[in-house]
Amino acid sequence: MHRVSIYTHDVATQFTSHLFPLYIFCDITRQMVTRTIDLRSDTVTKPTETMRLAMAKAEVDDDVLVYDPTARQLEKEMARVTGKEAALFVPSGTMGNLISVLVHCEIRGSEVILGDNSHIHIYENGGISTLGGVHPRPVKNNDDGTIDIGLIESSIRNPDFEICYPKTRLICLENSHANTGGRCLSVEYTDQVGELAKKHGLKLHIDGARIFNASAALKVPVDRLVRAADSVSVCLSKGLGAPVGSVIVGTEAFIARARILRKTLGGGMRQVGVLCAAALVALQENVPKLVTDHKNAKTLAEGLNKIKGLSVDIASVETNIVYFEILKGSHITALKLGKIMEEHGILLMPDSSSRVRIVIHHQVSASDVQYTLSCIKQAMTGVTDENGGS
């Protein structure tokens, strides 16, 4: 694979001037590529040197026996940040969501109301049904990631008719909402859903894989964003940049039950402080960088929207995720564009034949964004047919 030059910014400055046509710029950079700009997801970040040093020096013990001091430190900090009583480190966000749903719906045949475009419903392998016997009740997600309050309430089963219906026990939200482009759920909306849950004796779980992104974008502390929730899962290996893991938070009783389920699912780990040490660095160093990620995403979106043949809903870019559409008549597919970009060391993720997802993270610079825009513009203007190239 070709790699993008460490001289990208200088090259872009020199060769995109009026003296050098853009196609020459792209041909030159093609010959001097040395690293990759990976825009497929914010899960692709590599551990920083500070993280690696912290991992090497981490104080550890057996976490299954609840003795690992670095794991305890991370869990205590995450409980504090989210305003909950306790926390538990788990290997992945999928496991975190699964454990949370199963704790709240421990009786098989329970039902959870969740968005039809949510990560739990689409991307987590149907685990709540397969492993927990939990019945999903999908309700339409709006373009901003919310679910109409009225639709949620009308989806709650009538407890007087349990002879036919599963029993509703849980509502799940996602903040920020990945499939709608990283849109953020407001405090007011989340509080309303929380009040509705309490009114009907239900629990509220928030898939907060990117809750720190939502917090940065809304300028609202994480603990306030999730105050109405009974449990939250928070990913450490997306925007925060840790190599592995998520944390689930809730009451002490909830976490006690979650710890048992983690072991049942094979997520009980021993000297896990090695991983937790990197996560602690991520909390300290990378949370402040999320604002820059969002700024770079907005810059990218605005630039893409100016390229002929592309369309971006600028208003939908609230955090670090950008979706763009390739318009009809552009004579190029998302897959073809991805292959052209890979030749320049830029990795994208086609979402459909005409839609592409880009995710910004702390290891993508402003100059990387400008280089990406230059190469996409060249691809869009230089491709003459479906089998052609730039």
From TrEMBL:
The protein's Enzyme Commission number: 4.1.2.48
Modified residue annotations for N6-(pyridoxal phosphate)lysine: 238
Record-linked InterPro entries: ArAA_b-elim_lyase/Thr_aldolase (IPR001597), Low_specificity_L-TA-like (IPR023603), PyrdxlP-dep_Trfase (IPR015424), PyrdxlP-dep_Trfase_major (IPR015421), PyrdxlP-dep_Trfase_small (IPR015422)
Entry's Gene Ontology cellular component terms: cytosol
Record GO biological process: glycine biosynthetic process; L-threonine catabolic process
Record-annotated Aromatic amino acid beta-eliminating lyase/threonine aldolase domain positions: 38-325
Pathway: Amino-acid degradation; L-threonine degradation via aldolase pathway; acetaldehyde and glycine from L-threonine: step 1/1
Cofactor(s) named in the record: pyridoxal 5'-phosphate
Record key words, sorted: Lyase, Pyridoxal phosphate
Catalytic activity as recorded in UniProt: L-threonine = acetaldehyde + glycine; L-allo-threonine = acetaldehyde + glycine
Superkingdom to which the source organism belongs: Eukaryota
A GO term, aspect molecular function: L-allo-threonine aldolase activity
Pfam families in UniProt: Beta_elim_lyase
Family according to the record: Belongs to the threonine aldolase family.
Protein function: Threonine aldolase involved in threonine degradation to glycine. May play a role in the removal of L-allo-threonine.
Record protein name field: low-specificity L-threonine aldolase
Lineage per the UniProt record: Eukaryota, Viridiplantae, Streptophyta, Embryophyta, Tracheophyta
